[in-house]
Amino acid sequence: MNSKVTLILRILFGLFLLFFGANKFGHWITPPGEMTADMQNYFGALMSTKTMTLVAIVEIAAGLSLLLNKYASLMMLILMSVSINAVMYHLSLDAGNTMMAGVMLILNIVMLYNYKDSYKRFA
To answer: Count of domains in the chain?
Structure first.
């Protein structure tokens, strides 16, 4: 892939992760629509076990690692679990708002592909 395109995607994805990770602490973006009882139960469980705090920290760390281009290959592996869980949540509980989670998953896959040479030394 073209290095300029990769650079732009890396910076945009880093800003995306930094913004949405920080939003989990600041709550300046409200979720669209009403939450169903299943959604409230799910988020209640995530909040009571501090899992959402961990997700926010992972997103912020991944965003910073992409922006600084330090340890980004490791953070993309760690972030993949967050990306897949976000997509699965939206597909099962909030199908109308799947787009942002899908974008995150696609960008995560693109970044994993971009850092594929980093993973070869462990094979």
So the answer is: 1
